[in-house]
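Example record

The entry below shows one chain as it appears in the dataset: sequence first, then structure tokens.
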Amino acid sequence: MKKASIILFNIKNINKDLIKDTFIVGCDRGALNCASNDIFMDLAVGDFDSVNEVEFELIKKYSKKIIKLNPIKDSTDTQYAIDYLKDYDEITIYGGIKGKRIEHFYANMIDLYNNKKLRMMDDNSLIITSEDSFNPLTNYKFISIFSLSNDTIISLKGFKYELDDFNLLMNNPLGISNEVSNNPLISIKKGRILVIYSNDDKR
């Protein structure tokens, strides 16, 4: 499986073990994030209007290839990186969740909806989509499940709150803040879901 990692700026703790053996893309100021953490990139991409000359020189030292985009464009730097990685089987965006520019987070969520190979994570959360049954991760405190289609039929076993062949509509937030217990299983008979893993916000 060909895996790629897109590093954005607002990920504080980059787990180098997770991005090992992946194609690493530093996206705009995320490239500076990589360089500042001694992470060599296969590609640095963006308009780089948020870095100065000294920072850009540092980025160049840590990049095998740089694509400098025109600041006036019809897509975000992150979307360009996703399109560049179209031949990869799994693409993980590190960062891009919440942040001061929440419109970018919303744009990232749209990318996640449109691209089934895409997932996002930061220091506290992991967001994925699925249309296949699977055993969810158990190393997060909470798991929230939302429907991406009105014909979604799911069952939840091994959860604090379980469901059995339930028609989860897109406008129903019933699946928020659930917790796994023993041998959790999400069965998807129909439709597609958005899954958000998150840790306790009191930490």
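Notes for this example: The chain has a mean pLDDT of 93. The CA atoms of residues 7 and 147 lie 27 Å apart.
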